[in-house]
């Protein structure tokens, strides 16, 4: 299954790279966009997965006939994480596929077609970037690169997000905001960054990348410390164990 998912993600990347003049539509606000490619890529992935695993359930960001069941074998898919970047050719977007067995993620794949970077993980076996093992850093917070996410359509999260961003900017080395939560998480997994937070994410934003963080030796949870939810929107903090512990010990989770 692992090889199948990686192959499907790479094929989906070809569609993303072939895109020209994406037809852009607003979802529920002018800041929440979807393109014809989000839908096309998701449909491609859905068909491939259901052909290979006919009894599986499919949960994707963009589809209308969504099957929300998270029992048995299920796939959680974000066809393009970083749609606003995609629309503007900012070239920081990724295809995310997680395989979940009875509610537990078993495989995660995040593919950045622009840099041909395939991040992957298998539960209990480790995490890789293009086939080479990856591991989180051991940087303390003071030396950390902190990635933050801010969906620009959740107005109720802005004050909290930027209060926390300011506090972490003072405590850490520097901040980054890529526009792709999945890539932020994978950058923590491979040690390019050290901590990532976002006040509200959907399961497809973090399901695949969260397993990659965990298998790379990192920690991931909600701000409360509860496990990341695969069925509902939730806050996410992910980091190397050292920075993760400091985040909680110094009370950033309740700021
Ligand atoms: C978004 C990106 C962004 C994050 C948002 C997500 P999308 O996903 O991951 O970095 O801040 O919360 O919704 O909409 O581009 O798939
Ligand atoms: Ca997303
Ligand atoms: Ca998306």
What does this structure look like?
The strands form 3 sheets. The chain has a 7-stranded mixed sheet with strand order 3-4-5-6-7-8-9, with helices on both faces. The model has no long low-confidence stretch (mean pLDDT 94). Helix 1 packs antiparallel against helix 2. With 255 residues, it is of the alpha+beta class. The protein contains 7 helices and 14 strands. The site of one calcium ion has 4 residues, from strand 4 and helix 6.
Spell out which ligands are present.
D-MYO-inositol-1-phosphate, calcium ion
Helix content: 25-40%
Tell me the strand order in the biggest sheet: 3-4-5-6-7-8-9
Structural class: alpha+beta
List the total number of helices: 7
Reading the helices and strands in chain order gives HEEHEEHEEEEEEHEHEHEEH
Alpha-carbon Rg, integer: 17 Å
Biggest sheet, in brief? 7 strands, mixed
Given as residue ranges, the uncertain stretches (5+ residues, pLDDT < 50) are none
Which overall shape is indicated by the principal axes computed on the Cα atoms? globular
The count of strands amounts to 14
Q: Report the portion of residues in β strands.
A: 25-35%
Q: Mean of the pLDDT scores?
A: 94
Distance between the termini: 41 Å
Task: List descriptors.
255 residues; alpha+beta; 7-stranded mixed β-sheet; 5-stranded mixed β-sheet; 14 strands; binds D-MYO-inositol-1-phosphate
Short description:
The chain has 255 residues and is of the alpha+beta class.
């Amino acid at each position: 299954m692992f090889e199948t998912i990686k192959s499907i993600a790479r094929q989906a990347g070809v569609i993303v790279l072939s895109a020209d003049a994406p037809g852009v539509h607003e979802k529920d606000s002018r800041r929440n966009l979807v393109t014809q490619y989000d839908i096309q890529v998701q449909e491609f992935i859905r068909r491939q997965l259901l052909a290979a695993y006919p009894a599986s359930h499919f949960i994707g960001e963009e589809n209308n006939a969504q099957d929300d069941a998270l029992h048995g074998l299920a796939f959680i898919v974000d066809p393009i994480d970083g749609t606003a970047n995609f629309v503007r050719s900012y070239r920081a977007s990724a295809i995310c596929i997680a395989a979940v067995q009875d509610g537990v993620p078993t495989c995660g794949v995040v593919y950045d077609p622009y840099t041909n970077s395939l991040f992957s993980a298998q539960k209990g076996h480790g995490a890789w970037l293009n086939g080479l093992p990856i591991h989180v850093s051991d940087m303390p917070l003071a030396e950390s690169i902190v990635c933050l996410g801010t969906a620009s359509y959740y107005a109720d999260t802005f004050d909290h997000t930027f209060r926390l961003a300011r506090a972490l900017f003072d405590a850490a080395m520097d901040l980054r905001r890529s526009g792709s939560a999945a890539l932020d998480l994978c950058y923590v997994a491979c040690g390019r960054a050290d901590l990532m937070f976002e006040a509200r994410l959907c399961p497809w934003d973090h399901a695949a990348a969260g397993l990659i963080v965990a298998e790379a030796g990192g920690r991931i949870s909600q701000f409360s410390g509860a496990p990341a939810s695969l069925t509902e929107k939730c806050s996410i903090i992910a980091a190397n164990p050292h920075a993760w512990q400091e985040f909680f010990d110094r009370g950033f989770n309740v700021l």
